[in-house]
Specification:
alpha/beta, Rossmann fold, 2 domains, seven-stranded parallel β-sheet, six-stranded parallel β-sheet, globular
Length: 402
């Protein structure tokens, strides 16, 4: 059986959560004997040629059905390949050559293309939707909070995405949701509850590197770690929950590691720049970090920070924090789809800036967390190995069998 999956970013070098989720599913298909092919329809302004595979196709970055609206490149990509005949034919011919039994959409945005392709090819191809977020609500929040977009415009974008996503759900053989909350949304809005399976986010876990001369040189005491991409909710959450409380409870030495694409955004926040001299003593940024250094940072951290207040789906960084065996200070939003860990030892939920700040002060002065073997095993249930050996994963692959 052959699966062709379509997404809006390449997975040649999986870095962010979406790429890692697609890669995990790819590996699961291959392990079960499926002939799997992934085609990325990517923004050439965001990815270099060395970041993509030969089968990946660049989109036209100038195409826009919502002029001057930021953060919707993925939605515009789907419309471009559906309505630009040259782009449509280039992608359609590649899919036809592969002769798939299934088409998997790794976001809803490419449904306009797939809908046209199915109508014109008239081949009996089953479609399934592997959701990573309830996308309409997420885009609306991002546009209103970070894009400077008027309510009416953000609402039109949300409506367009909702219509696309719910139509895809209704036309899918199976819908994979990443959280129970998203599953309920699809069941209510698209009337497809009998076809929904929840497979949340996980991580590939192997013991992290224990020592690093760079980490030892920078951090001489306990430190918090925050890992995030440049995705706006990551930066916004750090601003709201961490910087709003100020960091003066920390000694004037490196005590916070900010890792990944969120680094530049955090550095440019008014709440950071307003205390630049003092915060520079306490915060260390790692905007471009190699895997070994990040592994050592996570392994030696005193606590993980998950200060997310908006967004949908399921946060891969939450899985990493849980598997770490460290203290975890999190919001309820960041714990979405991991709700069973709300009362787990070492997990502290803080949903206001004041509560988050109090938790940071408290945890900083506590000894390192020590978990029992049973609690360590319990936290490691969020690995991909565990998730793909679950009843829900078995149910999904059973549905795909002819």
């Amino acid at each position: 059986m052959k699966v062709v999956a379509l997404g809006t970013y390449p997975i040649k070098f999986p870095i962010h959560g979406g790429q890692r989720r697609v890669t995990a599913f790819r590996d699961a298909y291959v392990e079960r004997g499926y002939d799997y092919h992934y085609i990325a329809l990517y923004d050439p302004g965001s990815y270099k040629l060395e970041d993509v595979n030969p089968s990946d196709i660049p989109t036209d970055p100038t195409y826009s059905s919502f002029p001057d609206v930021p953060f919707i490149t993925d939605m515009e990509t789907g419309r471009y390949f559906a309505f630009n005949n040259e782009a449509f034919q280039a992608l359609a011919s590649q899919i036809t050559e592969l002769q798939p039994d299934f088409l998997a959409l790794e976001q809803p945005f490419l449904w306009p293309f797939v809908k046209r392709y199915l109508e014109e090819s008239r081949r009996p191809i089953s479609v399934f939707y592997s959701s990573q977020n309830a996308e309409g609500r997420l885009k609306y929040d991002i546009l209103r909070r970070n894009g400077g977009v008027r309510h009416a415009v953000a609402d039109r974008v949300k409506t367009a995405i909702d219509e696309c996503e719910f139509e895809l759900c209704r036309n899918s053989k199976v819908v994979i949701a990443v959280s129970e909350e998203d599953a309920r949304s699809y069941a209510e809005e698209a009337d497809c509850g009998d076809r929904i399976i929840v497979i949340r986010n996980g991580i590939d876990y192997s013991p992290w590197i224990r020592e690093s001369s760079e980490v030892s040189r920078i951090f001489g005491g306990p430190y918090f770690i925050f890992v995030g991409s440049a995705y706006p909710p990551n930066i916004e959450g750090f601003d709201h929950f961490v910087l709003k409380n100020r960091l003066y409870f920390l000694p004037p030495r490196k005590s916070v590691a900010v890792c990944g694409g969120a680094s530049d955004g955090v550095f440019q926040l008014n709440r950071y720049l307003g205390h630049l001299a003092s915060y520079s003593e306490r915060v260390q940024f790692f905007p471009k970090i190699d895997d070994d250094t990040l592994s050592a940072l996570k392994n030696n951290a005193h606590a993980f920070l998950l200060p997310i207040q908006t967004g949908g789906g399921s946060n891969l960084k939450t899985a990493e924090a849980l598997v770490s065996g460290k203290w975890v200070i999190t919001t309820s939003v960041a714990l979405r789809s991991f709700e069973e860990y709300r009362n787990a030892p070492g997990v502290i939920i803080a949903d206001t800036p004041a509560a988050f700040g109090e938790a940071m002060v408290d945890v900083y002065h506590r000894p390192p967390l020590i978990l029992s073997n049973d609690h360590v095993a319990y936290r490691r249930r969020v690995t991909w190995d565990s998730l793909f050996n679950s009843a829900e994963a078995d149910r999904f692959f059973d549905i795909l069998r002819p």
